[in-house]
Design a protein that fits this description.
The chain is an alpha/beta fold and 333 residues long. The chain is 37% helix and 21% strand. Strand 1 and strand 2 form a beta hairpin.
């Protein structure tokens, strides 16, 4: 009888250890850090299998130090004669609601709703950092956001966002030569010399920089309010009346841009809608400014009419727009 109880206790102990191990494993698999690691590994594999290493040079998990002493972390950088591709990986699930120029996107998973920073805005800071560190024109930098999870866009997916292994054909779709082979080698040498070692200490220091930046951003307004409250009110001499400002020069006509902005009053940027009729997805000729492909876009007017035009695929970095005609009407900034 005693031997049977000992065997029963041993089996129960094994089941208990197995349950605890499964609970710990489930917690690790659901953690944001593991999901981010898994997404980056998937993108690494897709890039290695789909891009020719003789023409595309992929670098991963890059932490660069900025001139102000802070750091920026970039998931993937692909350097080729067709430009420098800056990839931001997001491992998301559920439904995604967001537009290209929105500050935040929304993730809905069953009844759970979460707001998170627009990864296109986050990747824009990476592009500006590389522009400063490498001395590369912004027109030669391509922003790409890769979704590696099972998330689905319930709004129009921005042109710079791709899902899964579609990142490979997206990168290979850029055919215009923007950099000479010597410039590609120079950029690779600069990145190799300026990147920090990919260690845990580097990651912890980068996280600490991010926290300090957020603390400064949140604490700036209350501090300034307290300082202003302690300053006593003292009479000050009345300044002389300023001279009248000269009349502003008339703005050059922008037929297409004015029509797009006037279609939706109260907004400085047009809101794009799905094309109501089938069209060719890309123009035959590339963008005359940056040689990126031109994509078809449409915007509805208040009277129900539609404006159809071509827009640069790198919008908002490149703001070139032209109608579906031979005449080119660039959108002046």
């Amino acid at each position: 009888m005693a031997a049977m109880w000992q065997q029963l206790h041993g089996v129960m102990g094994l089941w208990l250890l197995l349950a605890v191990g499964l609970a710990l494993l489930s917690g690790v698999l659901r953690s944001a850090r593991f999901k981010g690691w898994l997404g980056e590994r998937l993108v690494r594999r897709w890039l290695a299998q789909g891009l020719d290493p003789q023409h595309y040079h992929a670098l991963h998990d890059m932490t660069l130090r900025l001139p102000d002493g802070s750091t920026t972390q970039i998931d993937h950088v692909v350097v080729s004669v067709h430009g420098v591709f800056v990839l931001e990986t997001k491992h998301l699930q559920g439904w995604i609601f967001g537009a290209e120029r929105q500050k935040e996107w929304t993730q809905t998973f069953y009844r759970h709703r979460v707001r998170f920073q627009n990864p296109l805005r986050q990747n824009w800071r990476h592009l500006k950092a590389l522009e400063t560190l490498l001395g590369v024109p912004l027109a030669h930098l391509h922003s790409v956001v890769v979704l590696t999870g099972t998330a689905q866009f319930k709004t129009a997916m921005p042109a710079q966002v791709v899902q899964g292994a579609a990142v490979v054909p997206y990168v290979r779709s850029f055919n215009a030569q923007l950099l000479a082979p010597e410039a590609v080698q120079r950029i690779l040498q600069q990145l190799d010399a300026q990147r920090l070692a990919p260690t845990r200490a580097t990651h912890r220091a980068h996280v600490a920089h991010l926290r300090q930046r957020h603390v400064r951003a949140e604490g700036a307004s209350p501090a300034s309010t307290r300082v202003l409250a302690t300053v006593p009110a003292t009479p000050t001499p009345t300044p002389p009346a300023p001279a009248p400002a000269p009349a502003a020069a008339p703005r050059p006509p922008r037929p297409l841009a004015d029509a797009v902005e006037a279609a939706i009053p109260g907004r400085a940027e047009p809101v794009l809608h799905p094309e109501p009729q089938p069209i060719t997805p890309q123009a035959a000729a590339p963008c005359p400014r940056c040689a990126a492909p031109l994509v078809a876009r449409s915007v509805s007017r208040d009277d129900g009419a539609w404006l159809h035009f071509w827009r640069c695929q790198r919008f908002p970095e490149c703001r070139h727009m032209q109608p579906r005609a031979a005449q080119v009407l660039p959108l002046q900034e």
